[in-house]
Amino acid sequence: MLDNLSTAVLLVDTGLKITYANHAAQSLLEQSLNQLQEAYILQFLMHPNLDSTRFRQTIQGGEIFSVSEVQVILADGRHLLADITATGFEPKERGTQRSLLLEIRQVDQQKRISQESQQWAQQQAARDLVRGLAHEIKNPLGGIRGAAQLLEKELPAQELHEFTKVIIEQSDRLRNLVDRLLGPNSPPNFQLHNVHKVLEKIRTLVSLDLSHNITIIRDYDPSIPDMRLDQDMIQQAVLNIVRNSVQALTALNQQEGVIQIITRIERQMTIHGRRYPLCAQIKIVDNGPGIPEQIRDTLFYPMVTSKQGGTGLGLSIAQTLIDHHGGKIEVDSWPGHTEFTLYLPIDKKDKHS
Ligand SMILES: Nc1ncnc2c1ncn2[C@@H]1O[C@H](COP(=O)(O)OP(=O)(O)OP(=O)(O)O)[C@@H](O)[C@H]1O
Ligand SMILES: [Mg+2]
User: Fold this and answer.
1) Which residue in 163, 248, 252, 283 is deepest, having the highest Cβ count within 10 Å?
2) Tens digit of each residue's pLDDT (9 = 90 or more) over 188-212
3) Ligand 1 site: residues with CB under 6 angstroms?
4) β-strand 257-271 against 328-334: which pairing, if any?
């Protein structure tokens, strides 16, 4: 009967081993019943609120719990997003041990898109707020600096210049920060460019000061046509992402670090509600520690950082720059794997020119 359900259902014993999987579960996990039987359930599911203790308690107590947005790990390493419900129960036949009934519902594409646009709106609101604030700080800052300069000229004693120097230096420091918060202030200068030329520049730039345990691998799709971009903006955006990978791998130290830069053509992409027949996809993948759980939801907000001395502006700026191109950035990350994907629409016109 369970095999007729469209919801994926698994039965798990007290040792947390799978004892049964219905057809829907087999197709969701892309494995046969034979392969799944006796497999440890937690090797397929990842979420901070899911662990063996929680499952065992549910089996014993016979309660129900639900967790949304669990990462479901497939055999080939890909991850899916799913909501799960776990129910502990005692089978009717005597002699059979208590079990856990697990329902897994993949979060569908539509929900993902609406979450995506909601997140995007929130990020934009946060960015506007910070930008507004930065703007308000910038104006008086100029005045303070100017006044300190004038004062310096009027001050008779040389030793008092120390103080005006501090004011000027600190104003300059703040001014730098505020300028970064405000982001690029000139409108984009769109020209036809080969996206791989831009990527190669970044690779050269980053390779210059790479510690030797990090390798950069390229995997380009040469069929991507020249496209209308602001070269500096795209370079800055991708550089911010690649730099984060380098920093994450450098912090890791012992392991062999690999950064992959992959490009592909993507057809029929929806970006912020608009459908594009043709997009360039740029993927930056690293095998670092993964993005810390606690900042995953706010990753693109300005000033969100896990680094000492980090300003948390790199990704926020990257997103602004990609927005200028009508594109979007997606992230997928788990321990040992972080993947940023950029989508840039390719104008049909560009293809023929
Ligand atoms: N490839 C990655 N691997 C692991 N964590 C990452 C990766 N990329 C980004 N992060 C996390 O995202 C946070 C925000 O990144 P972002 O580039 O916006 O700021 P930052 O790098 O901390 O500071 P800044 O770029 O302004 O110097 C980082 O602090 C880091 O915790
Ligand atoms: Mg950064």
Assistant:
1) 248
2) 899 999 999 999 999 999 998 888 7
3) 240, 244-245, 248, 286, 288, 290-292, 295, 299, 304-307, 310-316, 338
4) unpaired
